[in-house]
Amino acid sequence: MKTKHKPVLLKELIDSLNVKPQGFYLDATLGGGGHSMAIIYRLEENGLLVCIDQDENAIREFAKVLISKGFTEEENTFTKSDLKVVLHRSNFANLKQVLASKGSVEFDGIIADLGMSTDQLHSGKGFSFRNNEKLDMRMSTENQVTAANLLNVLYKKELQELFEKYGDLSYANRLANEIINYRRSKPFETVDDLRFVINKVVPMHTRTSNFRLPEARVFQSLRIAVNSEMQVLESFLPDAFGLLKNEGVMGIITFHSGEDRIVKNFIKDLRSRNLTNIEKIIKPTIKEVEANPQSRSAKLRIIKKLITAQNERKNTKP
């Protein structure tokens, strides 16, 4: 199946990486593979790209793409003229475990796109509010908790906090109340169950041009909670930065204010320890947003690792 996903900020990210033909790179969120393929096109013999995704469909479909491009497969490693691409199905929170078999490999560049791919939105797992599907929202089937589970078992206060924290919803209290009322007569199972409740809290006739789709933020909140996305990001960032070579580059694309806050605070900590002196913040152009509306809230932060003899001594624990 050909991917329908359009990679966000593609040129800006790849240009910022300044890909070395024989460099080592890591894509921690493979998704539709657009960013990874752009890196592959710039690699030559002895170059390496490691791709991670917890979605088995993403791994399987990208493997097909590599084979169609002339790569040969041996287990999870794909080779073409000594250029290697390694695919791992895992959450990027498990970065250290995934790379343990590679020894002490360090990367020239690491990227992570924290958004949903178009393919995932149409995966039948209830990520999109536009299709009446089961309220699953799990990125990986190894996760036991679904969105429906959360809606059916969380207390009112927990629901309210979830929607306030992950969706910045001013009506989180009313939404939590209506969820409790609804599940007294019927458990949440499908997208339409949740849409019914949202429409009751924010009726269609009350929606302004700037507030037309409250469903998007409600569904986003649940997806973040189901997959523990904020907690995973907090553990990923220091692990990934530790795997960069000196002067290696890391690019993180965020779509949510909470995600961006975590990345910004991480960079602030690096600066305080003199571990980076370069940071770029890049947003999509008007042209890209018009061509791909999903890129509207995207924000790319680029950081470069800086290790000198002085700050190595300062930051090394005895």
From TrEMBL:
Subcellular location: Cytoplasm
EC number: 2.1.1.199
Enzyme class: transferase
Residues binding S-adenosyl-L-methionine: 33-35, 53, 92, 113, 120
Gene Ontology molecular function: rRNA (cytosine-N4-)-methyltransferase activity
Catalytic activity: cytidine(1402) in 16S rRNA + S-adenosyl-L-methionine = N(4)-methylcytidine(1402) in 16S rRNA + S-adenosyl-L-homocysteine + H(+)
A biological process term (GO) from this entry: rRNA base methylation
GO annotation, cellular component aspect: cytoplasm
S-adenosyl-L-methionine as UniProt keyword: yes
The entry's keywords: Cytoplasm, Methyltransferase, rRNA processing, S-adenosyl-L-methionine, Transferase
Pfam families: Methyltransf_5 (PF01795)
InterPro entries: RsmH (IPR002903), SAM-dep_MeTrfase_MraW_recog (IPR023397), SAM-dependent_MTases_sf (IPR029063)
Main localization of the protein described in the UniProt heading: cytoplasm
Role, per record: Specifically methylates the N4 position of cytidine in position 1402 (C1402) of 16S rRNA.
Similarity comment: family membership: Belongs to the methyltransferase superfamily. RsmH family.
The protein, known as: Ribosomal RNA small subunit methyltransferase H
Source species: Candidatus Dojkabacteria bacterium
Phylogenetic placement of the source organism: Bacteria, Candidatus Dojkabacteria
Gene it is expressed from: rsmH
